Amino acid sequence: MAHRLILSTMNLGKYIFGVREEYFAKVTTQEKERQFLVYNNLSLMHFILVGFTALSGVVFGLIIFNHWIWSILLGVFLGAICFILLLLVFFLNMTTNYQGLYLTMTDMEPIFEPYYSKDLRGLSDEEALATVEGEKQKLRETNQKAIFDHFHLSSVVTSVIKVSLILIISAIVANAMELLFFRNSINDSLSQIKADTTINICAKTAQVEHNDELNRKIVLAKWTLEMLSPSKGDEFIFINSRSFLLAHQVLEMSLGPWKVCLDIAFALLFLTPFILLRKSKEFAGGIFLKEAALVDIAHSYMFFLISERERQKIKENIEKNYDYSRLAKKTENEA
Amino acid sequence: MKRNFFDVSNIIFWILLGLIGLFLLPYLKEPLYDENKVTEWVQLFDTVQPIPQQDTIVVIDTTTSDTIKYAFKVWDWHDFDGEWRSIKFKYKVGSLDQATINRASSTWWNPYRPLYEHDKELLKDLIMQMKAYIKTKNLSSMEALEYVCSSIQDIPYTLVLDDPDGCPCEKSFGSFSGNCRVQPDGDGCCEGVGPFGVYSPFEFVYHETGDCDTRALLAFTILKPMGFDVAVMVSRSKHHSVLGVANIGGSGYSYGRNKFGKKYYLWELTSESWRFGDEVDGYDWFADLE
Lengths: 335, 290
Hints:
The structure holds two protein chains of two kinds.
Chain A: H1 2-9, H2 13-17, H3 29-64, H4 68-93, H5 99-106, H6 109-112, H7 125-142, H8 153-181, H9 183-195, H10 197-204, H11 212-227, H12 244-255, H13 257-279, H14 281-284, H15 287-321, H16 324-334
Helix pairs in contact in A: 1-3, 3-4, 3-8, 4-8, 5-15, 7-15, 8-13, 10-11
Chain B: H1 5-22, H2 26-32, H3 36-43, E1 70-78, E2 84-92, H4 95-104, H5 112-122, H6 124-137, H7 141-153, E3 158-160, E4 169-171, E5 174-176, E6 188-190, H8 201-207, H9 212-223, E7 230-235, E8 240-245, E9 255-257, E10 263-267, E11 285-289
Helix pairs in contact in B: 4-5, 4-8, 5-9, 7-9, 8-9
């Protein structure tokens, strides 16, 4: 299929998730293409969701500000927030299922410990790199199966927070999209309300004493008609109402249970990438995250060796060139 | 080819996206959007000016064969001032059967609404004629309410039970005979009116017999299309129903609320002696139909 071919050869995931070609040097072409396919798909989903949010920003902006430039700015702002938040949620879920690598990444002391008592002053960069590569290869070979049996209660709490965050974004987007989809029908309904004799008579009725409910209706009728008229010298661009709440109420009334269905559809749309990352073995058990973990371990290991070597050299230099006993005496005399 | 979790979820995402994209097409949107809901919402403002606008009164053309589809009934009563009132209205032949079948098929989670929705059409002519009278006489909102409610309160009380062998029975407020018609002592009893022991509005008008919720439901069916903000109020503790009226009322009047806290003042309809504002016993009145 054409779209599969494109998604398995292009590298869209590089720009979002840092999927680099060199990570797949040691795997088959088929495996590499599969990884490209899943990360490109995830990136596409991310772009689509961000696009939806940016569009929602424009929709809300048009209702609130009734001005194109402010609306576009709001769209960009909301899009940027969604971009960062979704990316944060995605990255928080991108944990490798290779248990050994996970444990090594979170605690590297067992690897570093033997070097604390070793003299590393003569260690060259090439030797350090060879040691690191050797350890990397060993870890790669000893971690062949992606089995993760690590559970912590905190992951439940963080998952709840992440899902809530996604649901909030999806609810915002769903409402905006519904306003966009049913814009003409909503405008017809608003015109119908504006022209309705009953509500106009109600708005013109004088308030009475000791009847709060009647007065509330009069106030509501006045407010409704006020919201349906644009500011002086202005005209409505998108929805013929100055109030988002009024437009939303009309939408909710007219769609009834269908609104709930659409809200659920958007919630599922936003949750799918999150569920994919959590449950699909293509991500947590995939080559990319395994190689990324190995690269991370290798970097830490390499920097540890070099910094330990330099620390030992500096320590030797201090011991040779600085007479601490003299400094100590001087301090005593001064005292 | 065996599909794994990724493939399935991926397909779901793109299908959902496609389905959402379909809403950009006008033909799919129209059936989902119900414009009548806004019309109903606007009607709520009608309580400020409750005197209804006069509908066009249908003149029955007796020269055509169309009239054979209709039957007529005279609905007469003494109003609260003792004046004699009478309305002759038409209804479609077969309406009673329709109303009975509809009532028998009502469901437990919402017994009143289907009866109201169905029977307001059957009683259209009665409602229209009452509206016409109110308009002609230029009655105030309170007078209009009294005009309608007196027509219901004038009919003596008869107990209505869903139990097929429920009559005769003993109740805390009296004993009832096994005759479904209104008895000289007022203690008629109708049994086997399933599923909830309530007659539909049309059945009540037709048989001129009914108990508390049957009466409240008929009052609601007539007043609601006139633009009054009314409700069928129910008290679980008292096993009783009355009419609820919003926006017209005062301090000291008994009242109940709907789920949003809106006040409905209570009007007992079980006998002609009750008036709006009379104290109604009970503390747990809520709007079951509004």
